[in-house]
Amino acid sequence: MKHFKQIDVAHSPDADDIFMYMAIKFGWVDSQTLRFTNTALDIQTLNEEALKGTFSATAISFALYPFIRDEYALLRTAVSFGNGYGPKLVKKKGAILKRNFKVALSGAHTTNAMLFKIAYPNAKIVYKNFLDIESAVIGGEVDAGVLIHESILEFSDELCVERELWDIWCELAGEMPLPLGGMALRRSLPLTDAIETERVLTEAVRVATSHKPFLSHMLMERNMIRVDKHKLKTYLNMYANENSISMDKIAISSLNKLYEIGYKHGFYDALIDANDYFIPTEYNQTRFS
């Protein structure tokens, strides 16, 4: 019996991450050497587990990556960028936020947390599961909250948008795509396995994107998605699209701008270039040529 190496993949339970992985789960994409398992966790937990090195491959907030760069390589695939949209800072209608307002964020190392902290240095921050942020604002536990994932498409009519984090990003970076989430792979994997993992994950996103209506229907049928089919279509067009298959030069430039901003504002101990942290896929070409 052939022995397959197991790769544990962690991703968030939001629609775009599930969508981008499911081609593997359904057997539409496979490997001759690897087998994959998956775990769904909220983004704060994913970032915390990445800091511990828990999973072989894991979804992360892009803003986290400089903290794990020695243990994980960046993958080019399964990425989510905002382009004219992104997380939203919401409050109760009619509320006026003080300089030191209390806000709920989805995690300390998320991209939205970094941008928020730059824009609102005096705010008092608490961290919550992203699913609990809306109710915390409505219930008065916090003055405001940053909504992410599908929550940006529909929220209580008791709330209104105080500020789009896209606007904060544009003030800092200009009109570039906003890097939100990506994938990282543990460096302890043999390079050939790392290259194969990225190949399979890339193909999974490609296949999912090419069969979006069919796969979306399967996910809805299995009750794996929290929104209706119309919002799912909108959401996937925003965050799981052709640009999610593999980062292009514009996406990488945006990512480097994020790291430049983070370094400038004291979030990172060094200024990094994302190009130095991708898996060298050319290795196989040289080895087997």
TrEMBL record:
Keywords: Lyase, Menaquinone biosynthesis
Signal peptide: none
Coiled-coil region: none
The protein's Enzyme Commission number: 4.1.99.29
Entries under InterPro entries matching the protein: Menaquinone_biosynth, MqnD
Enzyme class per UniProt: lyase
Catalytic activity line of the entry: cyclic dehypoxanthinylfutalosinate = 1,4-dihydroxy-6-naphthoate + dihydroxyacetone
Gene3D superfamilies found in the cross-reference section: Periplasmic binding protein-like II
Claim: Lyase is one of the keywords in the record: yes
A GO term for molecular function: lyase activity
UniProt key word Lyase: yes
Role of this protein: Catalyzes the conversion of cyclic dehypoxanthine futalosine (cyclic DHFL) into 1,4-dihydroxy-6-naphthoate, a step in the biosynthesis of menaquinone (MK, vitamin K2).
HAMAP family: MqnD (MF_00996)
Protein name, UniProt field: 1,4-dihydroxy-6-naphtoate synthase
